[in-house]
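Newbie here. five chains, one complex. Structure please?
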Amino acid sequence: MTTIIHSVAYQKGQRLGDIAIDDISEVVKQPETFIWLGLHEPDDALLLKIQEEFGLHELSIEDAHHAHQRPKIETYSGSIFIVLKTAQLEQGHVVYGETHLFVGSNFLVSVRHGASASYAQVLERCEESTKMLVKGPGFALYALLDFVVDHYQPIVAQFEKDFDAIETDIFKGQFDGLVIERLYDLKRRLLELRNAALPVIDISSELIRLHEELIPKELRAYFRDVQDHVSRLAGLIDGMREMLTTAMQVNLALVANNQNEVVKRLAGWGAILAIPTVIFSLYGMNFQWMPELKWRPGYPVVVAITLLGCVFVHRRLRRAGWV
Amino acid sequence: MTTIIHSVAYQKGQRLGDIAIDDISEVVKQPETFIWLGLHEPDDALLLKIQEEFGLHELSIEDAHHAHQRPKIETYSGSIFIVLKTAQLEQGHVVYGETHLFVGSNFLVSVRHGASASYAQVLERCEESTKMLVKGPGFALYALLDFVVDHYQPIVAQFEKDFDAIETDIFKGQFDGLVIERLYDLKRRLLELRNAALPVIDISSELIRLHEELIPKELRAYFRDVQDHVSRLAGLIDGMREMLTTAMQVNLALVANNQNEVVKRLAGWGAILAIPTVIFSLYGMNFQWMPELKWRPGYPVVVAITLLGCVFVHRRLRRAGWV
Amino acid sequence: MTTIIHSVAYQKGQRLGDIAIDDISEVVKQPETFIWLGLHEPDDALLLKIQEEFGLHELSIEDAHHAHQRPKIETYSGSIFIVLKTAQLEQGHVVYGETHLFVGSNFLVSVRHGASASYAQVLERCEESTKMLVKGPGFALYALLDFVVDHYQPIVAQFEKDFDAIETDIFKGQFDGLVIERLYDLKRRLLELRNAALPVIDISSELIRLHEELIPKELRAYFRDVQDHVSRLAGLIDGMREMLTTAMQVNLALVANNQNEVVKRLAGWGAILAIPTVIFSLYGMNFQWMPELKWRPGYPVVVAITLLGCVFVHRRLRRAGWV
Amino acid sequence: MTTIIHSVAYQKGQRLGDIAIDDISEVVKQPETFIWLGLHEPDDALLLKIQEEFGLHELSIEDAHHAHQRPKIETYSGSIFIVLKTAQLEQGHVVYGETHLFVGSNFLVSVRHGASASYAQVLERCEESTKMLVKGPGFALYALLDFVVDHYQPIVAQFEKDFDAIETDIFKGQFDGLVIERLYDLKRRLLELRNAALPVIDISSELIRLHEELIPKELRAYFRDVQDHVSRLAGLIDGMREMLTTAMQVNLALVANNQNEVVKRLAGWGAILAIPTVIFSLYGMNFQWMPELKWRPGYPVVVAITLLGCVFVHRRLRRAGWV
Amino acid sequence: MTTIIHSVAYQKGQRLGDIAIDDISEVVKQPETFIWLGLHEPDDALLLKIQEEFGLHELSIEDAHHAHQRPKIETYSGSIFIVLKTAQLEQGHVVYGETHLFVGSNFLVSVRHGASASYAQVLERCEESTKMLVKGPGFALYALLDFVVDHYQPIVAQFEKDFDAIETDIFKGQFDGLVIERLYDLKRRLLELRNAALPVIDISSELIRLHEELIPKELRAYFRDVQDHVSRLAGLIDGMREMLTTAMQVNLALVANNQNEVVKRLAGWGAILAIPTVIFSLYGMNFQWMPELKWRPGYPVVVAITLLGCVFVHRRLRRAGWV
């Protein structure tokens, strides 16, 4: 059964060792002990087993069955249920996963769905700071939240790079359909990440305000740190969203401007070309009595006048910015 | 009288059996008993009868007479009046109905108007979990709310499919009047569903906060679950609305861009065609002394120069992206 | 003096009869009695008389002198002053009026300005329900508010009809200046009605919260009903405003689209016409040595080639959607 | 020293008479007495003197030195500091000034900067209502606020007139650069006035809520009246701002529409002119064997066909709305 | 070690003198004494030393290590951690720095990163007002905040100048790509400054509300002054942002308008030129029986008619505003 990633018991901040699922309900009864269980896409049987061992609420288990929840925190008697969106960069693309957490006074169960880094390293890092782990699953919960939020960071950085590239392209004069598609696509991705990250602020805030038994006073600063981290990312995302909207307008304005230039040029050159067109067709008429036609220097004189007219009009239009 | 869909009495979570409307006021007096009455578009006489039997407030009955209410919750002494919008997909179209609920400490009356699935299956499902039904009409109310909200889900999914189709069409280059009409229509439908679904959050919240006698502590998590469900849908709807607005801008930008291309091409080819036009009309003039005309290779030379000129200009314009 | 529409005293819900203005201060002293006075555009002398008889606050009388107030509620010691906007449809146009109400524990004075239906029918309707009228001027106040709000309903319905007509015209292809003017005008009218109706929610809310002596518990549901009614209208208005903004964008998009089509066609047909233009001017040149000109079938062959060229280009452009 | 506009002491609502600056600290000690001092752009020495006499806070004096504050209220121990923006219409232009008020339990100091009407008339008007003046500087403060807010009224009326003129011009067909500049300019002026007026609501609200010692219960209605006045103006301003944004869009839509018409006409007439162009150049070719050229009625027949073709195409295009 | 800018101890508002880092923990214990330490980009060793000496929280030190925090305030047991963004104008460009503050009841540590003026002058200015310095690090904190906020002022002024320049250019007719880029760039810079300055309001507010031990009642007015200063700047920034958005629309409208004019002119002159084109090509036809051609005054008459036609059409179009 590879879906159980780790199942460890801790006592007074020290690792007691791995324990079997069936022993959980017994170990949990010991004082100053808590169990940290990590699952990856468990099947229904395992989930029911877990529900029984920890006495979890029916509704939270129902939610844990199907992914595609939005990030939230639900308080049941005896346990808290938290849903988080995890995000990772894979070959330049953002892939989302989901992590469900069941937290009680002496247990923390994490259930990973879809793309997300394993929480094994979170476990290791926590075990290093025994001092904090003494405080029970609250610190482990912080470590997990922090880990999830830390993974949003490189994605926002990637989005910023993408946005800068778009911006540069637009002002370089490349404001075609492709740039618009890239703008649109980035907006969609920003919205998606925002929806994933923002609820973490409310989740942390509710943990601090309502769950004193789980988050002792000394840990509050840590959860506020997580909130702060998300706020900063949300600020960056919202800044980009506002600038994206502006960039879309800028694009439209530049296209309009460009077309204006083209139309002006079209009109300008049309004016210049009107001169030979009219003059040449004038002398293409077949009247018998057209004295100029019989005048010897007629041809060069007319061509010269035409050329001079073109040059004159060209100069005037150039000064007015039309050609 | 087919408008009475069901009229059942429950005692300690067990079905006592169907009861006649006239017996209601008596049965209701028994301890730990509640009556669940389901009506479909009742006439005035029946509504007045119901009002009398349960002692409902005049204003709520007035509201129940005519549909086209907005979803809301009203508290009267002795009973709560709730209006819900029901929605169903029928051949790809969303049809809306309305359900009015009268809830008291020992009764639940549902009145369906227009399109909505029968609540008979809700009844059946509730009867299966006797443990919850013991808690009185509160659980039945949850089951109804949950049923109504569950029906919003496939509609949102349908809207997402529609939106994806529009998006694909736009970026494939099909940004004509029809796409705009589809965008507009989707926006309108999103607004409609949002107005139907969103008030359920406030209704649930008021039920949890203000009606402890009806919603015991154990049931709160269930109503929060309903809230959460609606929040998720509202989040999806709002995300789509934002992207729709952006898509409208994108469409405009693409049209502008496209026109720009057309105008540039028009100008570019106009420039190329100006060459033969001017040269050919030049030699169409009827001057007697035009030495080129009598020059034997004049004709092929002029045509060749014209062609070369066209090719040269075409190349330069192509490099500049004008043709 | 036709400005006094009615001046009636009620005792325990029963009409005592009409009373003269000068007797008011005496009648008002009797227990369980209240006076309902209805005025229409009274002069200054009458207003001062009223102020004296009921002991109204100087500031409220000042406000009552000049219309063009925004809807509001002001609490003075001993009386409440309420300003309402009344609205009516007259030959398809909305005309606004203003009603000022002075309400005390034993009197209700209504002062109508401009367009509004007479409140005489409100009076009659109230007298029918003696049971409610016992509760004093609170119920009369509700009846007036309800009457005013009921008159907003057909106006919103009219606006919806107007909006549907505009919508249909736009998508039928009629997106000219007239449609834009109609959109603009509707937006302005929606804003106006919204400003008139929305404050009633706050007025009702303040009456319920702060004036228990005037609005006994049994009447609260009635005022909430008024609030609910206005909320529904405001919801409809806001929905229309959002769709109006979208319709304006849609209009712009359709115009842009249409122009795009025109420009494309212009370019397409220009390309086709370029063929005969160039070929015919080619053979209009006057070179002496142009062998084709002396070739017998030259003329029909050139015309045929030209025609074939046109047909060929036309077909290709048609396939590309340019002509 | 002309910067002291008035310096008057009042006792029990009666004017005691003018007093010298140096006597202030003595007079102020008398019971039921307050001093009303009016300054106009005082120099530093005078301000320091005033600070000393009334015991004002260092920070408020610092603020009073330089104008260009935003409207605000600051509470210091012993005195309140209020900044107001005054506005006046001068030859159709709005000019702004600033008034700083220092208010204590027994004094009111007003310092005017820039354009504003003298407060001497406020003084006079206050002295007429001795009854209110008994209440101390609170009523004087109200009178000043009311005076300042009353001066915003004609400016908003002027803006409404300007906006109506712009609106009329736009729909009359004059949607050129000048109208856009007028729209833009009006928006800027609206924003400016809004920033000046809106803070008065907060200032009044804070005075009512937090300064009971200064604003006795009987005066509260007066300050609410001021709030109400500003709210009404703010409502008008915000309505105009929303309609201005819409007018900008309308303008763009009308320009787009107009251009569409022009382009369509251009295309339509181009199509008509294509007929003679092609036909005439056809018979301008110099082929020796062109039988039509030798046919006697050739010339009038060709001209007639050309004319008929033009008329036919013109009719069809006219029906389609292209010419 | 040049990263320690100053390290001074104060007792009862008087400078005790510079002290070494290692002596801090001892000096700090003395009553009515506080230490003001100023660092510039310290290395890790120094930060750890500081943490130890003052007993700072691990998380705040972690934050202090890496810059690019957003402005915030964090409360730890025994100390407050504040992050501020500093901004300076350097050759017309805004450069940002960051300052981290650790504040306790008897110490103030400032850590500067990146561009910012030295706080040495703040120190000097504080030492001059011994009266305030007696109140401990609260006043020093105010002085620092005030100093940081004062530096935002010239930047906003610079932005206003830039915006005015853009505005003037737009209405002068220069609405090209460069202006759009300048608008876009200004919007970005405004957003950046806003994000730097706005959090100072919350920081000050939290200091006043929650840290009475640090900010005694007499100092509150000072922190409110800082808040007020930032509010004013934020108001200016938001006003500019709104006008920038409008300016972008104005630009688009002017471009559209301009193009409209160009297209109209193009059409107008095209109409005028159509006259000679058609007439001249008419008489360029080679029919043998064209009586006009043999009519002696044919040529001058035709040219005269053509000219008259052009003049006539030109006049009519000029009146209609087309040429």
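Moderator note: Chain A has twelve helices and seven strands. The longest strand of chain A covers residues 79-90. Thread marked as resolved.
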